[in-house]
Amino acid sequence: MKKLLNIAFKDLTVVFRDRGAVIYMLATPFLLTLAMAFAFGRLTGGGSQSSGLGQIPVVIVNHDSGQFSQFITQTFESKDLADLVKPTYLTDDAAARLAVDNDQAAAAVIVPADFSSNILPAGATSGDVSAFSDRQPSVVEVYSSLVQPISAAVVRSIVDQILNRMAAGVAGAQVSIMQLLTNGLVAPNQMQTVGQAIGARAGQAATQSSLITVNTQLSAAASSNSGGFDWLGYMAPSMAIMFLMFTVTAGGRSILAEREWGTLPRMLATPTTTAQVLGGKIAGTYLTGTAQMFILIIFGSLAFQIHWGAPLAVVLLTLALVAAATSWGMLVAAYSRSPGQAASLGTAIALIFAGLAGNFVPRQSLPQWLQTASYISPNAWGLEGFLKLAGNGTLTDVLVPIAALLVMAVVLFSVALLAFRRQYA
Question: Would the pTM count as exceeding 0.70?
Answer without folding.
Answer: no
